[in-house]
Every structure is written in structure tokens, then in C-alpha cells.
UniProtKB/TrEMBL annotation:
GO biological process: lipopolysaccharide core region biosynthetic process
One annotated Gene Ontology cellular component of this protein: plasma membrane
Name listed for the protein in its UniProt record: Lipopolysaccharide heptosyltransferase 1
Gene3D superfamilies, alphabetized: Glycogen Phosphorylase B
GO terms of molecular function: ADP-heptose-lipopolysaccharide heptosyltransferase activity
Database matches in InterPro entries: Glyco_trans_9, LipoPS_heptosylTferase-I, LPS_LOS_Heptosyltrfase
SUPFAM superfamilies cross-referenced by the UniProt entry: UDP-Glycosyltransferase/glycogen phosphorylase
Coiled coil: none
Keyword Hydrolase assigned: no
Membrane topology annotation: Peripheral membrane protein
Enzyme class, broadest EC rank: transferase
Length: 339
């Protein structure tokens, strides 16, 4: 197999989960070219993976929101770019109409997609010449790796390798003045996934006592309001300005600790091998949780929100020796070997 197209359009966490598949394919098929099609909003993640040859993206979410002519033109241009190469196989890891249309438009006689009963939208079945079943007895990351290995008949080797290389910032980040710092990813896709503001206050004050400054990112006005409410209860906590995806990733690289709910940036932090604690309240820890011994862990579960004590204990486990994270011994960005 010489060239393959992977289609996974959204979301940030799901695209992060898919990156080890790229490394697996390169091991199984030396010299293979791997292209990836996704929404423009998540294209940066793919560009950080040197194992991906072409990143094919279109503003699908933007067009849905704005219905603008510029977005429509960009989508049309992306179709031309999609069809520039011929593929030995197209693998749709998403299973909805928009991903199926991309798979169908690509130049390939072999288009792999989920079985009809496993599709996110059953009508997507029209696009595929081959069907496969997901490995439902594993967590999302391992299940994806195992599924693709079975589709293409290769064995998995070792732990997942994400291969992501975050670009260094053009200038020093303002946040560096506050090192060592922790990033609190408090924002969620739904209210039921939120962790109580008072709990964030307790954890933030504990970190301040250890010499670690909590920083709070946000991506919408509602999230900014929540960030302010959390920061108000933590002496010295800082609400960051609104950041791009790349800038958030650069802050993750510099952070001494990441604490957050089940969201894409927390999955990215774990993929980058940062000390990370993921808090669960309404989603399945068994399916979506992170667990890299000594580096990242998950607490709480669906219907059983994590307690403050559980999160505090988990932070101690991933930091191991919190006294190492003083101003003189802060984690420095970009000084770790490439993964």
C-alpha cells in the first residue's frame, strides 16, 4: 500500500486519539503516504504530525454557521485538492454524511467504513465498498488502533505514539512569567460535564500553596464568565486572553500541570506526555479516560463526579514530587526529546 486517506472530520479529542494510527501505518507499511481530511478548525493538530503527508481541510463548521460565499469557495477548492491524488484505500473513521461524502469523492476503489449499525448516521453507508466493526470492548484510543490494525491486517507494536510536534512560539509567551503554572480546562460541551466552581477553588488554592499558578483558558463568552468566576476564588489565578488552538498547545507544552474535564485539550495534554489529570462527571472514564502511568490519570466517572480529594490525590500522583515545581525548577518548554 503506497497512499491512504484517513477521514476524521471532528472533534479535537477524536482527532488526537487518531494520531497513533498514523504511526502504526508507517510501521506496517514502510514508505506509505498518509493523508488526512478534517474540518479546518482542527487542521493544526494534523499539521503537527510529520507522519501526515497532506492535510486536506475545509471550513465545514464555518459554512454551517455562516453560510458564507468564502466558505463555500474554500470547500469547492478543497474538493479539487482531495481529488489530486489517487489512493490505494480510503478509511472513514467518522461515519457520518460529511465524512462519507469526502470518502466517496476521493479517488479510490477501496473505501472502508463502519457497518451500517455502527454508523453515526446510517445514510453514510452509501459511500463504502468495504465494512468493518469497531472494537467496542476497549477505550476509544486503543479501540481505534485495534480496529484499523484488523482492517489492514497488521499487528500492533508497543504503546501508542502520537508523534505531535508543537511549533515554538514566535515570541516568548506572557504566561512564562508565571511559571510554574497549571492550566485549568474547565470548559465543557454540556453543563452536565462541568465540575463545580467551588471544587476548582479548592484545587487552585492547594496549587498556589505549592507555588503553582493556575491559568484559565476559554473559548467563548460563557466560558470566559466561568473562568472569571473560578479565578475570583483563587489568589493569583489568571484568566488568559482568548487563544488560538496553536497558542493553547504552546501553553500546554510550557505547563507544569494540566487539570481539566473530558475535553480535547486535556486529551492533547496527555498525548504530549504532560502531567495531566482528567475529571469525569457525566461521561465514561472507561471509554474516554486517559492513563499513562506516572504522567496522566483520570478520576470520577459517568454519574459519579470526582471529589476534590480524588483530584488532589491524582495531582500528587502525576507530579510525584510537587516540590520540584518551584520557580527555579519549572518545566521548560521544548526541552524534551521528540516523541
Amino acid at each position: 500500500m503506497n497512499r491512504i486517506l484517513i477521514v476524521k472530520v471532528t472533534s479535537l479529542g477524536d482527532i488526537v486519539h487518531g494520531q497513533p494510527v498514523v504511526s502504526d501505518l508507517h510501521r506496517a507499511f514502510p514508505g506509505i503516504k498518509v493523508d488526512w481530511a478534517a474540518d479546518s478548525a482542527f487542521a493544526d493538530i494534523l499539521r503537527w504530525n510529520p507522519g501526515i503527508d497532506r492535510v486536506l481541510c475545509a471550513p465545514l463548521r464555518g459554512f454551517k454557521k455562516r453560510r458564507g460565499l468564502d466558505d463555500l469557495k474554500a470547500i469547492a477548492a478543497s474538493i479539487g485538492e482531495l481529488r489530486r491524488e489517487k489512493y490505494d484505500a480510503v478509511l472513514d473513521l467518522h461515519g457520518v454524511y460529511k465524512s462519507a461524502i469526502i470518502a466517496f469523492l476521493a479517488r479510490s476503489r477501496r473505501r472502508y467504513g463502519y457497518r451500517a449499525e455502527d454508523l453515526g448516521e446510517s445514510g453514510a453507508a452509501f459511500a463504502y465498498t468495504e465494512r468493518y466493526a469497531p472494537r467496542g470492548n476497549l477505550n476509544a484510543l486503543d479501540g481505534l488502533r485495534n480496529t484499523v490494525s484488523q482492517v489492514f491486517g497488521y499487528s500492533l507494536e508497543g504503546a501508542p505514539r502520537f508523534g505531535l510536534r508543537i511549533p515554538a512560539p514566535a515570541m516568548a509567551l506572557e504566561a512564562a512569567k508565571h511559571a510554574p503554572f497549571a492550566l485549568f480546562f474547565h470548559a465543557t460541551s454540556s453543563d452536565e460535564k462541568k465540575w463545580p466552581v467551588g471544587h476548582w477553588h479548592s484545587i487552585g488554592r492547594s496549587l498556589v500553596d505549592q507555588g503553582i499558578t493556575p491559568l484559565l483558558p476559554w473559548g467563548s463568552e460563557a466560558e470566559h464568565k466561568d473562568a472569571v468566576a473560578i479565578a475570583e476564588g483563587i489568589p493569583g489565578a489568571i484568566v488568559l486572553p482568548r487563544l488560538s488552538v496553536e497558542a493553547v498547545a504552546q501553553h500546554i507544552e510550557m505547563a507544569a500541570l494540566i487539570v481539566g474535564t473530558d475535553t480535547g485539550f486535556v486529551h492533547l495534554a496527555s498525548a504530549l506526555q504532560k502531567p495531566t489529570v482528567m475529571i469525569f462527571t457525566a461521561t465514561s472514564r472507561g471509554h474516554f479516560g486517559i492513563n499513562v502511568p506516572g504522567l496522566s490519570t483520570s478520576v470520577g466517572d459517568e454519574g459519579r463526579p470526582a471529589s476534590v480529594d480524588e483530584v488532589r490525590e491524582a495531582i500528587g500522583a502525576v507530579l510525584d514530587r510537587p516540590e520540584d515545581f518551584t520557580q527555579s525548577g519549572a518545566v521548560k518548554p521544548y526541552d524534551r526529546p521528540a516523541k
